[in-house]
Specification:
Helix content is 26%, strand content 24%. By secondary structure, it is of the alpha/beta class. The protein has an 8-stranded mixed β-sheet with strand order 2-3-5-4-6-9-7-8, sandwiched between helices. A hairpin with a 7-residue loop joins β12 and β13.
Length: 452
């Protein structure tokens, strides 16, 4: 784990006792939720999803026992069970849309995502956090809707993560809103997630972060023969998708050196720090690219709409278990079957997601208009910002600092005002500012823009 050197207020640490220290401070309520995440529940949900035989986007929607229709109805019914524990705060709905004919959609088709929305308790806080997995599956032939297509790891594992988090978190309350999603059409072209992302943009949803779980249940690398249940990858883009064709944004990145400090990169760093605070024997690996070669995921449509989003995927993949028809050839078994999922590992990934969602949804909103003053030639750094416009008032702010070559924030300074002057050169370090409440829940960090 990457530890910070903390300079903290008295409710964290007495600096008269020690000048520098390493500290892991957990919120007892978050830790209780993390511990409640069950590998048995996750396994049961994955095996149930596999039992529908095919969850192909174009498979049967009328049967009660097989096909994508039966799968989505069951997912919705499970979310509704969890919602009964929420005191009316969680609502469940189908997000229904018509997908036009395309290369992987043979004719205009009615599709349905499943959304469980846990409404925030603070009416002045409009932030939304989204966690998602896709419930559709496929075999070798992406246009074959009728074969047995188990999809245990790709992506019943991600769907089970979303479902288990909804089960645990529905019983608790958070100032901000959390949406637990199971989307369709990922294998046919990210159809379901694209519909939600476009809807969110059109309806002005204030999505602060989107977590996409896709292929999070295998711990054995096919060709490198590595067995690894302690690492998970977080894919995050550097140059924002919305910078395409935006000369002003590109010029700002070039001038400020912020290509590694996009909102999604800040989310990835936040995930690493927070998850390793709560989940034992988990090392979060930051992968500095949007996704793997030749592949894509449901976070991409959210990035394209200007939202902050990342993808979680296991460290080493077994491609004999992905997009494969169930068969045996030359003594080798193929197929995405549930017996090859490591359920304790999926539990870790779910706990990672929960710790991040809970910490964000309990935290104050981010500071606004964060700038670094560049009006003079100095060897120090002057930062200023405005308080969040919504939600609860922060107890204070953290100033984050790191070497320009470091992937992680290395120091934190606590302040209570809206300005900070540091005896470190703005030319030699990167900085960010995040809000924090009295219990230590931190917002996402905001990378400053230069201002005169």
């Amino acid at each position: 784990m990457k530890y910070f050197k903390f300079i903290l207020p008295l409710f964290f640490l007495s600096l008269s006792a020690v000048a520098q220290t390493t500290i892991i401070k957990q919120d007892a309520a978050i830790k209780e939720m993390v511990d409640e995440v069950s590998s048995k529940n996750i396994e049961a949900n994955i095996r149930k999803l596999v039992s529908f035989k095919s969850r192909h986007t174009l498979s049967d929607t009328t049967s009660k026992t097989t096909g994508s229709g039966a799968a989505r109805n069951w997912i919705k019914s499970e979310y509704e069970k969890y919602a009964k524990e929420s005191g009316g705060r969680m609502t469940v709905q189908f997000d229904t849309f018509t997908q036009p004919k395309s290369a992987r959609i043979v004719q205009p088709t009615h599709l349905k995502n499943v959304l469980a929305t846990l409404k925030g308790t603070d009416p002045t806080d409009t932030r939304i956090y989204v966690v998602s997995g896709h419930y559709d599956s496929r075999v070798n032939d992406v246009m074959d809707p009728n074969s047995v297509e188990p999809g245990a790891n790709d992506d019943a594992s991600g769907t089970a993560v979303s479902m288990e988090l909804a089960r645990v978190m529905a019983k608790r309350s958070f100032p901000a809103t959390i949406i637990f999603m199971a989307v369709v059409g990922e294998e046919q072209g990210l159809n379901g997630s694209a519909n939600v992302a476009k809807r969110a943009k059109a309806e002005n949803w204030n999505i602060d972060a989107m977590l996409n779980n896709d292929i999070v249940g295998n711990t054995h690398g096919m060709d490198n023969d590595l067995k690894d249940n302690t690492h998970v990858r977080v894919f995050s883009e550097g140059v924002p998708s919305t910078a395409t064709g935006n000369a002003k944004m590109i010029a700002g990145l070039i001038g400020n050196g912020g290509e590694d400090d996009s909102p999604s990169r800040e989310l990835a760093r936040y995930i690493k720090e927070t998850a390793e605070r709560y989940v034992d024997q988990l090392d979060v690996k930051l992968i500095y690219r949007r996704d793997r070669y030749l592949r894509g995921g449901d976070h991409t449509p959210f990035l394209q709409q200007g939202f902050t989003a990342v993808r979680f995927t296991e460290m080493n993949e077994d491609f004999n278990r992905q997009h494969q028809s169930v068969r045996t050839e030359k003594g080798v078994d193929y197929g995405d079957l549930p017996d090859f999922v490591d359920y304790n590992y999926v539990q870790k990934v779910a706990r990672m997601n929960l710790s991040v969602l809970a910490n964000l949804a309990l935290a104050p909103a981010e500071p606004q208009n964060v700038v670094v003053l560049t009006s003079g030639l100095t060897n120090n750094t002057d930062l200023k910002w405005d308080a969040p416009k919504e939600g609860k008032k922060p107890a204070g702010y953290y100033i984050l600092m790191r070497e320009t070559t470091s992937p992680y924030w290395e120091k934190k300074y606590y302040v209570t005002g809206n300005t900070a002057k540091l005896d470190y050169s703005k030319d030699n370090y990167f900085f960010a500012v995040q809000s924090v409440d009295a219990d230590g829940h931190e917002s996402l960090p905001i990378f400053p823009k230069p201002a005169r």
